[in-house]
Amino acid sequence: MCVSVVFVQVMGVALNGIQRPGDLAAAQAKLATMADLKFRQIFDLLYGANRQLDLFAQHGVDRIFECRILSVDKAFRGRGLARELLRHSEQVARQHGFKV
Predict the structure, then answer these.
(1) The N-acetyltransferase domain covers which part of the protein (predicted)?
(2) pLDDT tens string for the chain (100 positions)?
(3) What distance in Å separates the CA atoms of residue 47 and residue 64, rounded to the nearest whole number?
(4) Which of 60, 69, 77, 87 could form a disulfide with 15 if both were Cys (CB 3.0 to 4.6 A apart)?
């Protein structure tokens, strides 16, 4: 029998995703059902900016690579980790053929 325990300290994280046409409308419909007014206001602002930009039409693409959340633990800030996480995220996007 083998029992292992691993402790990992997370210094930073980049959570990325793929946005496709229609995702914004679905997100807005879901947002309308949420009770948290402050949350809704923030995302109404973000979704409004996305609608105005219309990056799908602007760049002629059917998918967009999104950097959704980028965060570095306070103890590790100021060392370029966020820049490295973003650089690596962009590299992954290019490797998978994303234009935007």
Answers:
(1) 70-99
(2) 767 877 888 999 999 999 999 999 999 898 889 899 998 999 889 998 999 999 999 999 999 999 999 999 999 999 999 999 999 999 999 999 999 9
(3) 15
(4) 69
* Residue 18 C-alpha from the chain's centroid: 8
User: At 6, is the secondary structure helix, strand, or coil?
Assistant: coil
What predicted TM-score, i.e. pTM, was given to this entire model?
A: 0.78
Least Cα distance to 63 among 11, 98, 94, 93 occurs for 98
SS (H, E, C) 8-25: CCCCEEEEEEEECCCHHH
Question: Within 13 Å and on the Cβ side, how many CA atoms surround 8?
Answer: 6
